[in-house]
From TrEMBL, chain A:
Presence of keyword Amino-acid biosynthesis: no
Assigned GO CC terms: plasma membrane
Alphabetized CDD domains for the sequence: ABC_NikE_OppD_transporters (cd03257)
Family designation: Belongs to the ABC transporter superfamily.
Gene giving rise to this polypeptide: oppD_4
UniProt main location, coarse: membrane
Lineage start: Bacteria, Pseudomonadati, Pseudomonadota, Alphaproteobacteria, Rhodobacterales
Keyword Transport attributed: yes
GO process terms (BP): peptide transport; transmembrane transport
Full protein name: Oligopeptide transport ATP-binding protein OppD
UniProtKB/TrEMBL annotation, chain B:
CDD domains for this protein: ABC_NikE_OppD_transporters
UniProt cross-references to PROSITE patterns, sorted A to Z: ABC_TRANSPORTER_1, ABC_TRANSPORTER_2
Membrane topology, from the record: Peripheral membrane protein
Domain ABC transporter: from-to ranges: 6-256
Protein name: Oligopeptide transport ATP-binding protein OppF
Presence of the UniProt keyword Nucleotide-binding in the record: yes
Keywords carried by this UniProt record: ATP-binding, Nucleotide-binding, Transport
Pfam families: ABC_tran, oligo_HPY
UniProt family annotation: Belongs to the ABC transporter superfamily.
The species this protein was found in: Palleronia abyssalis
Taxonomic lineage of the native organism: Bacteria, Pseudomonadati, Pseudomonadota, Alphaproteobacteria, Rhodobacterales
Chief site of localization: membrane
Cellular component aspect of the GO annotation: plasma membrane
TrEMBL record, chain C:
UniProt topology in membrane: Multi-pass membrane protein
Compartment(s) where it occurs, according to its Swiss-Prot or TrEMBL record: Cell membrane
Coiled coil: none
Keywords annotated in UniProt: Cell membrane, Membrane, Transmembrane, Transmembrane helix, Transport
Domain called ABC transmembrane type-1: residue spans: 95-300
Chief location bin: membrane
Similarity comment: family membership: Belongs to the binding-protein-dependent transport system permease family.
GO annotation, cellular component aspect: plasma membrane
Protein's UniProt name: Dipeptide transport system permease protein DppB
Example of a GO MF term: dipeptide transmembrane transporter activity
InterPro entries (UniProt xref): BPD_transp_1_N, MetI-like, MetI-like_sf
Membrane-traversing stretches: 9-30, 101-122, 134-157, 177-196, 235-261, 281-307
From TrEMBL, chain E:
Superkingdom of origin organism: Bacteria
ABC transmembrane type-1 domain span: 98-287
Annotated protein name in UniProt: Glutathione transport system permease protein GsiD
Higher taxonomy: Bacteria, Pseudomonadati, Pseudomonadota, Alphaproteobacteria, Rhodobacterales
Subcellular location field: Cell membrane
Topology with respect to the bilayer: Multi-pass membrane protein
InterPro entries attached to this UniProt entry: BP-dependent_transpt_permease, MetI-like, MetI-like_sf, OppC_N
Similarity remark: Belongs to the binding-protein-dependent transport system permease family.
Source organism of this protein record: Palleronia abyssalis
Keywords: Cell membrane, Membrane, Transmembrane, Transmembrane helix, Transport
Gene that encodes it: gsiD_8
Length: 339, 367, 313, 482, 299
């Protein structure tokens, strides 16, 4: 099964696995879109990291793709998405449900609360299998045991019969991963899968995801705001600020050659483990709320370089090899000078 | 120790837990026999995996919970049994910053009242007007505006709320502030704001800080000294630089090696820790770390290691039977160099830092 | 498990003692001489004096109390002043009746209240939600006696569908027994259904926003399965606890309902006993309902534990 | 064939010697025969005793008994049995019949079926007592064995024998095959069902769940009559309803209303008894101003029911010194009819300047307060007795057992005692009339109305005879399924 | 404590901060007004409170004036809602009865809240013996049948509307004790309560400023539900002669009388029944709205 999947992925390599060309949506009565023209793509076998501060819309965008946003509160205003080259309709609930858990799987940030406390973990995994495959209960249970083994849980035959509360956070997150991968999805969306965990456990989980990805060739979207995790795992990075992707590109380019002032600010805010201990450079101010969202560049209220022109929608500038940034002045060192 | 402001001797705290409907309660040894000294004016950091007893220790130091056994002194006064007036006074001199800025502010009180409340208790002689002025001052001190006093906590972002918490802690004019993971709940850009703020306040007001965290980069950035905890015990302590450069306890090493570094291509060989952290309800005998220690030997299963001087730097101590041998094996892997930023990128970072510091820029005439 | 139950029983003892003292204090507080109520229209003084002696009503209250407790411990709750029947026998006769009524009412309440609560939570803010809430509130605000009589007039008199009142023991004729009990159970169940509906709704609303429900959806499960299996299973816990608390209300409500439909159960027994100052019966009933209440709560706790894998280990 | 009868409440203990409720007596009518019975016109007629003869001075009476009677347990009925019954009624500690038989000093068995009762003095009320619970004959063997618990399984000699009882649910009696008058009895069993709510009682009849109900609410009359499947029968009761004033019962008797009869008479004048009857009882009850209803032979025609006269009432108030009006607190049982009644009275009285404050009380409380003298006025009534003495003596004589108003008048005491001891109807009537002259002036009780017993029956029921005592006698009653 | 002017190094908040309306009362009111069902509830309750207060000046017949010629008359132009069993105007009695019924509902719930909440707070916050004693008494009270409790209290206090309210209040108290205790247990575990202890705030103030305001919302909701029960309980109590004394009207006693005439005069039950329903609905909608409006975290 693994083999066929890998083959499949080779045959469709030309088109990205998931190609979000434009995604805009708003909540409730608000006219301003929370997500504005979000675009990114991920290919099979590749890891895309979405970074950005808390509340910028990372989770909302992935929930939208999963079809897990409530239709009565979230209004999708624009959605041009392809999955494996085919149009992917965010309004077709039935189709979304077929995709969910089968081709596209998701794991969430909170391992402690994301598993149903009332059911055995084995049943919860088996349920995911049976939702999409026509298998017997016994087969589904076997699959559950196998999956637990694959995510490195010792004695999986016994563990399937345990309840979530009997497991530690790290184990639960592994169960979540096992559940997400139970149907060999083509795409895994991991929404801050390690934020709630210790560094030692975190590195185990990241290793696990990496290994599994190598085995099955699935594409991964990893949401995080921990740049350390990004540096470790990402092939590509998309930097999100207030609902827009302000910069995207190969991981190396983002780390070593960031273009957008926000990306630079973010990198500067990280305390370092080596080198001299200097006062941290920060991104001053706070993120605008949806009501106070400025026109044009959304970062303009906090950007130390903001000029009048920033009231206009910034152009997307390209810096080669898929590295783009939305800024009037990128590259800064070329377009700006000291006053 | 003439300069010690807070000392703790053999602090222990047990909880009765479980006692579920079926079983009798078990003893959870959250903190076991911890001794610490905090010097006036220094910043002491306490690190450790979650659940290792950091918060319990902090709350004990703050006397929010009583120790099961052990002594504490504050400026030479015995405080472990303080009650009533003595406790109120202690709380003027010693303040607390909570981990979660979202849950630690009463959602139904305005910020002004929240910050003014410690004044009400500790400086009752102040008139209402003076108190309001003082609250405005405090808010300004943490980078908020006095008008913000009329608003409710939920109208603020996480970073702003943490500032409110800090303003509140500063209100009584404390000598020592204990922060229980004051930045863990914040994301990097906000975290940086709060870290800078704390550093400024410490420098300006001459505060002593005890900071709890599990992010080692944050620790390294903020502290003078570090104590590393594992499963209720301090396993290593010493000056920050020594701990990061020459960690001696295998747990400290593992912790340091597991931190992903935010630099492209920079990696470090990991010291793999197997298994999960044991439960404090039933801690392993001997060295508590032996179940996960890659260097564990027979002796570790029986003998409880004491904190010993490492001889690397004054005050650097580790609780491991074999740290000399492990160090000799050269076990602590060094990070690789990373790919490094381009010159253009470095220029951009410099430009950014200058702009933040107030340097104006203007668009270059485009070619 | 056993030790848990034992501990709970130990905790309940002071409650029972408190209740028994309370009931005895009542005797002192309540005006209306039981003997006067019993002596008949003529109120012959000799009879009155004799009855006082016979039922030891001249003893000081504490003496009466300890006599009663002593007898109660041996299973003797005295005899009814009104019919001369032993109280235990009377209660043994009435208990199945009220149990049947309460059970059927509870079933009604559950069958109506829970689905309505789930529906209105799932459809929060829609017309369905409003309608369900309004119906629930009307269930709460229509007095039982009113609803009861309306039902009798419509169902029994006008449409002649069900017997108007009375009782047929279940073991005698199950079908008829249930038929007779349908209306009273429904009336008793409405207010309960309303309460259950409101609570189910709020429990479901909490659960529906929880992470594990999101997880269930992310697995691609059908909405039906997400709601009925994942969400409801967890919303059930508070509902079970509540249902036990509602037992008290059920008994209180049974008083009026049994009166209207002439169901010869506990409620009717207690009303008649109170009005006739038949203290032995009042005391017996209060004691038994109190114990019943405590047992219900105990069962709820056990169910709570059983429903909560976390507490089971 | 089973006959189902709905009663207003549950009977108490089924031992004629211990029993005290009205509904209990309805059950006995089918369960226990008495020495004598009454006609609808209140004449005493034979039942277990075929004839009786008074001695000259009225201090003894000799009964000849029916010979073909056995109790339900097979024990034969004879003079010996009667003697033991009387003895039990007089000596059983729990017996509530003692005062009713207080005039009987002893019995003498004269033959198998002949017995003489010896009396302390002439007692005109005795036969009427023997027409009720005091005259009910129980199997002596059964009561000897059961003692005070006889009521759990009563054994008498009536047309039906006891089968089972479930408290508050039903009492089932089955036909007694050896009944002396068995050919008059047409049912295999009779079931009594207590159904307190009048609306529900009627609903049960309409839905066919029962065959007969007693005490239909007057307000339901129209509905019952308009229902083609229901017949209604009625009889004015022997009892009365009124306001009892505290004239001299304890400290609270010392109040304007207790001290000044003019006030009480003013109130009596202020209320329109016809209006009450029309508004509250749809005109079905009988207005009243005496302990006996106007259709009773004992009614004193010299004091007819007064017309409502607000002016006269005001004048009396003024005369008593309350020209500006006066307040009267009345305690009322907290049930629909009394409350409705009192609100009507209240409304009418207010027009005469009497401000009535209604305090509704739960019945047991009301009764206690009343007997303890803790009241000013109390709305209460009396279910009535066959003999006139039962409606007046114990209420109006100084030592009367139920003289809650604390009324005391030597002349009245004398007249009422005298009326007891003569068997001459005309002479008794005269005593009562003389007493009435005084009592009408003093008005310790203001009588308002006499209830009418209303039975609603399935129209398949034939042969039902309404009796003023409110009992249901099943001799000759038939049910023909249509 | 050394004071230094705000250092420039600390990020000052940008000056143009947009918060629409600073005053909390205004915000609560605004939120409340935009809550459609809450407004409906408010209007219903205001309407009934209004007629209860205005009863004396409204152009309606005397609620106790009897008319022997018009007993149990169906609604007509003369009597819009018909007349009752002794010829009184049902509309007028309904309007006057609003007073007694609303009072019965509100006052008895107020009693239950004022007694139950402090006890619940004490039990929940102090725990130990205080909790044990309060909890046991509460359970005992919960287990005792309402009717018996009510009769005893009625008898003890004497029959009147006030005492009926007290009786209902006392029997609703255990519920509030329980609810409050549970809430306190969860609120007391919140960080902000610890933060109050950390600044050395006395217990008294912790209870009044930290615990009380935060446990209020569910209590508010329960209170509005209990108002319904209380209005109906007044009816049951007037059945025991405990409630409003005749001839003064209350909806409960009107319904109680009406039940005997459901066949002959259904309007006697219909209108007070509808009034009770509307008031209960009103209070519940109001409660839902208030809870949302008072919660600063709720949008
Ligand atoms: N149902 C909703 N209604 C209105 N606003 C919403 C809703 N859900 C999310 N939001 C808003 O959308 C914004 C983006 O939320 P999102 O969860 O995507 O942030 P995030 O980037 O994942 O942050 P974090 O790192 O904290 O998880 C937030 O400001 C949030 O308040
Ligand atoms: N009140 C309490 N009752 C019972 N157990 C407790 C209590 N407080 C803490 N513990 C337990 O004590 C241990 C140490 O907890 P503590 O909160 O001090 O850890 P921590 O190091 O602060 O963890 P984190 O990083 O997650 O905040 C944990 O196992 C915890 O479950
Ligand atoms: Mg998120
Ligand atoms: Mg902690």
């Amino acid at each position: 099964m693994v083999a066929t999947l890998v083959q499949n992925h080779i045959s469709i390599e030309a088109t990205p696995l998931l190609d979000v060309r434009a995604l805009s949506l708003g909540f409730g009565a608000s006219k301003t879109n929370l997500l504005e023209g979000v675009r990114y793509s991920v290919e099979a076998g590749e890891t895309l990291c979405i970074v950005g501060e808390s509340g910028c819309g990372k989770s909302v965008s992935s929930l939208a793709i999963m079809g897990l946003l409530r239709h009565d509160v979230a209004h999708i205003r624009e959605a041009d998405i392809r999955f494996r080259g085919e149009p992917y309709d965010l309004h077709d609930t039935a189709a979304l449900r077929r995709h969910r858990g089968a081709d596209i799987a998701m794991i969430f940030q909170e391992p402690m609360t994301s598993l149903n406390p009332a059911f055995r973990v084995g049943d919860q995994i088996a349920e995911a299998v049976r939702a999409h495959r026509n298998v017997t209960e016994a087969e589904a249970n076997d699959r559950a045991v196998n999956m637990l083994r694959r995510v490195g849980i010792p004695a999986p035959e016994a563990r399937v019969n345990e309840y979530p509360h009997q497991m530690s956070g790290g184990m639960r997150q592994r169960v979540m991963i096992a559940m997400a991968l139970a149907n060999d999805p083509a795409l895994l969306i991991a929404d801050e899968p390690t934020t709630a965990l210790d560094v030692t456990i975190q590195s185990q989980i990241l290793d696990l995801i990496r290994t599994l990805q190598a085995e099955t060739g699935m594409g991964t979207i990893m949401i995080t705001h921990d740049l350390g995790v990004v540096a470790e795992i990402a092939d590509k990075v998309a930097v999100m600020y207030a609902g827009t992707i302000v910069e995207a590109g190969p991981a190396e380019a983002i780390f070593n050659d960031p273009q957008h002032p926000y990306t630079i600010g973010l990198m500067s805010s990280m305390p370092k483990l080596t080198g001299p201990r200097e006062r941290l450079t920060t991104v001053p101010g706070t993120v605008p709320t949806i009501e106070t969202m400025p026109d044009g560049c959304r970062f303009s209220t906090r950007c130390p370089f903001a000029q009048h022109v920033c009231k206009e929608t910034p152009p997307e500038r390209s810096f080669g090899a898929g590295h783009t940034a939305l800024c009037h002045f990128a590259p800064l060192n070329e377009r700006l000078e000291r006053a | 120790m003439p300069n010690a402001i807070l000392t703790a001797m053999n602090l222990t705290r047990h909880f009765k837990v479980g006692g579920s409907l079926f079983t009798r309660p078990k003893t959870l040894r959250a903190v076991e026999d911890v001794s610490l000294t905090v010097q006036k004016g220094e910043t002491l950091a306490i690190v450790g995996e979650s659940g290792c007893g950091k918060s319990t220790l902090a709350r004990m130091l703050m006397r929010l919970i009583a120790p099961t056994s052990g002594q504490m002194t504050f400026e030479g006064r015995q405080i472990d049994q303080a009650e009533g007036r003595a406790l109120t006074e202690l709380r003027r001199d010693m303040q607390f910053i909570f981990q979660d800025p979202f849950s630690s502010l009463n959602p139904r009180m305005t910020v002004g009242r929240l910050v003014g409340e410690p004044l009400e208790t500790h400086a009752p002689q102040l008139s209402g007007k003076d108190r309001r002025a003082k609250v405005g001052e405090l808010l300004a001190q943490v980078g908020l505006r006095p008008e913000h006093g009329e608003r409710y906590p939920h109208e603020f972002s996480g970073g702003q709320r943490q500032r409110i918490g800090i303003a509140r802690a500063l209100a009584s004019g404390p000598k020592l502030i204990i922060g229980d993971e004051p930045v863990s709940a914040l994301d990097v850009s906000v975290q940086a704001q709060v870290i800078n703020l704390l550093a400024d306040l410490r420098d300006r007001l001459g505060l002593t800080l005890v900071v709890i965290a599990h992010d080692l980069a944050v620790i390294r950035h903020m502290s003078d000294r570090v104590a590393v905890m594992y499963l209720g015990k301090v396993v290593e302590e010493g000056p920050t630089d020594e701990i990061f450069a020459t960690p001696r306890h295998p747990y400290t090493m593992a912790l340091l090696s597991a931190i992903p570094e935010a630099e492209y291509g920079r990696t470090r060989a990991q010291i793999p820790l197997t298994g999960e952290m044991p439960s404090p309800i039933d801690p392993p005998a001997g060295c508590r770390f032996h179940t996960r220690c890659p260097f564990a030997r027979e002796a570790c299963k029986q003998d409880v290691p004491a904190l010993r001087d490492t001889g690397i730097a004054p005050g650097h101590r580790a609780a491991c039977h074999f740290f000399e041998e492990i160090a000799a094996e050269g076990a602590m892997p060094l990070p690789t160099g990373g790919t490094g930023r381009s010159e253009a990128a470095k220029a951009r970072f410099a430009l950014y830092a200058e702009a933040i510091a107030g340097q104006k820029t203007r668009p270059r005439a485009q070619p | 498990m056993l030790s848990f139950i034992l501990r709970r029983i130990l905790i309940a003892i002071p409650t029972v003692i408190l209740i028994s003292i309370f009931v005895f204090a009542l005797q002192k507080l309540l005006p209306g001489d039981p003997v006067l109520a019993m002596a008949g229209e003529e109120r012959d003084p000799a009879t009155i004096e004799f009855l006082r002696e016979k039922y030891r009503l001249n003893d000081p209250i504490p003496v009466q109390y300890f006599t009663w407790v002593g007898n109660a411990l041996t299973g003797d709750l005295g005899i009814s002043l009104r019919t001369n029947q032993p109280v235990t026998e009377l209660m043994a006769e009435k208990l199945p009746v009220t149990l049947q009524l309460a059970t059927m009412a509870m079933i009604f309440a559950l069958v109506i209240g829970i689905p309505a609560g789930i529906l209105s939570a799932v459809k929060k803010g829609t017309v369905t939600d409003y309608v369900a809430n309004v119906v629930a509130l009307s269930g709460l605000s229509i007095p039982n006696f009113w609803l009861g009589i309306m039902l009798i007039l419509l169902v029994s008199v006008k449409w002649q569908l069900l017997p108007a009142s009375g009782y047929v023991p279940f073991d005698e004729d199950p079908v008829r027994s249930i038929q007779v009990m349908i209306m009273p159970a429904f009336v008793l169940g409405t207010a309960l259904a309303a309460t259950l509906m409101r609570h189910t709704r709020s429990a479901m609303l909490t659960v529906l926003t929880s992470d594990y429900v999101r997880t269930a959806r992310a697995k691609g499960l059908s909405e039906r399965r997400v709601i009925l299996k994942h969400a409801f299973r967890n919303a059930l816990t508070p509902i079970v606890t509540l249902s036990a608390l509602l037992f008290g209300e059920l008994i209180a409500g049974a008083v009026l309902t049994e009166q209207i439909f002439t169901v010869p159960g506990f409620g009717k027994l207690v009303v008649d006993a109170v009005f006739n100052r038949d203290y032995a019966v009042v005391q017996g009933i209060v004691l038994v309902t109190a114990v019943g209440f405590i047992v219900m709560n105990l069962l709820a706790d056990v169910a709570y534990v059983l429903l909560n894998p976390r507490l089971r280990s | 064939q089973d006959l189902r009868i709905a009663l207003q409440s549950d009977a108490d203990v089924l031992d004629p010697d211990q029993s005290r409720t009205f509904v209990g007596r309805i059950v006995y009518a089918s369960l226990c025969d008495k020495l004598v019975d009454i006609t609808p016109d209140l004449e005493i007629i034979p039942q277990l005793a075929t004839e009786w003869e008074w001695s000259e001075d009225g201090t003894s009476v000799t009964f000849t008994l029916r010979e073909d009677v056995t109790f339900h347990d097979g024990t034969p009925f004879n003079a010996e049995a009667v003697a033991r019954n009387i003895e039990r009624s007089q000596t059983l500690e729990e017996s509530r019949r003692k005062s009713e038989l207080s005039s009987v000093t002893g019995t003498e068995v004269l033959g198998e079926y002949e017995i003489r009762f010896d009396l302390a003095s002439a007692d005109a009320t005795l036969l009427a007592q023997l027409a009720d619970r005091s005259g009910m004959m129980m199997s002596p063997d059964a009561f000897d064995e059961a003692g005070a618990d006889f009521g759990l399984d009563p054994v008498c000699s009536g047309p039906f024998e006891f089968d089972e009882r479930i408290a508050q649910d039903r009492i089932v009696l089955t036909k007694f095959d050896d009944y002396w008058n068995a050919e008059e009895i047409n049912f295999d069993s009779v079931t009594f069902l207590p159904i307190p709510d009048t609306t529900v009682r009627l609903a049960n009849l309409q839905s066919g769940d029962i065959d007969i109900l007693e005490r239909l609410a007057a307000t339901d009359l129209g509905q019952a009559e308009s229902d083609g499947g229901i017949n209604v029968e009625s009889a004015v009761s022997l009892g009365y309803q009124g306001l009892t004033f505290n004239v001299d019962n304890g400290e609270r008797g010392d109040n304007p209303w207790g001290n000044d009869a003019r006030l009480r008479r003013a109130l009596s004048l202020a209320v329109g008894r016809d209006i009450i009857n029309q508004v509250v009882f749809e005109g079905a009850f009988a207005p009243g101003n005496q302990p006996f209803p106007p259709n009773s032979p004992w009614y004193d025609d010299d004091h007819p029911i007064p017309e409502r006269d607000v002016e006269a009432a005001r004048a009396l108030l003024e005369e008593a010194g309350y020209a500006d009006g006066i307040t009267l607190e009345v305690q009322v049982p907290n049930t629909t009819v009394p409350l409705q009644l009192m609100q009507v009275v209240q409304s009418m009285a207010s027009e005469a300047g009497i401000n009535i404050e209604i305090t509704s009380k739960e019945f047991a409380t009301l009764l206690q307060d009343q007997s303890a003298g803790d009241f000013t006025a109390s709305q209460i009534g009396w279910s009535g007795r066959v003999d006139p003495d039962g409606n007046i003596h114990q209420f109006m004589t100084t030592e009367g057992g139920i003289n809650d108003s604390g009324y005391s008048n030597e002349e009245v005491d004398r007249l009422l005692d005298a009326a007891r001891t003569t068997n001459d109807q005309a002479e008794r009537q005269e005593f009562y009339n003389q007493a009435r002259d005084i009592l009408n002036e003093d008005a310790p009780i203001v009588y308002l109305y006499h209830q009418t017993w209303i039975w609603a029956l399935d129209d398949d029921i034939q042969g039902f005879v309404p009796y003023p005592d409110g009992m249901i006698r099943l001799e000759g009653v038939t049910l023909e399924e249509s | 404590m050394a004071q230094v002017a705000t250092p420039s190094t600390i990020d000052a908040e940008s000056a143009n901060d947009p918060v629409l309306d600073r005053r909390p009362e205004n915000r609560v009111w605004k939120k409340f007004r935009s809550h459609r069902s809450a407004m409906l509830g408010g209007i219903l309750v205001t309407f009934f409170v209004g007629i209860a207060i205005l009863a004396p000046v409204l152009p309606i017949p005397d609620p106790t004036a009897t008319d022997w010629g018009a007993v149990r008359q169906a609604p007509s132009a003369a009597h819009l809602f018909g007349t009752d069993e002794i010829g009184r105007d049902v509309l007028s009695r309904m309007i006057w009865g609003a007073q007694a019924s609303l009072l019965a509902g509100v006052v008895s719930v107020a009693i239950a809240v004022l007694v139950g909440v402090p006890l619940g707070i004490a039990a929940g916050y102090f725990g130990g013996w205080t909790d044990a004693v309060i909890s046991r008494c509460t359970e005992a009270l919960l287990a005792a049948p309402f009717l018996i409790l009510a009769i005893a209290l009625a008898a003890f206090l004497g029959p009147s509307l006030t005492n009926a309210m007290i009786a209902i209040g006392i029997s609703a108290t255990p519920l509030f004790v329980r609810l409050t205790r549970g809430q306190v247990l969860s609120v007391a575990a919140e960080d902000y309560v610890d933060s109050a202890r950390a600044i050395g705030l006395p217990t008294r103030k912790i209870l009044s400023r930290y615990i009380l305001p935060n446990i209020l919302p569910p209590i508010l909701v329960q209170a509005t539900l209990t108002i319904a029960t209380a209005i109906i309980a007044e009816a049951s109590l007037s059945f025991l002669g405990l409630g409003q004394q005749p001839p003064a009207p209350s909806w409960g006693s009107m319904l109680n009388t009406a039940k005997n005439f459901l066949n002959q005069a259904p309007w006697m039950a219909l209108y007070p029944g509808i009034a009770i329903f509307l008031v209960v609905l009103g209070f519940n909608l109001l409660g839902d709205g208030l809870r949302d409006a008072l919660d600063p975290r709720e949008q």
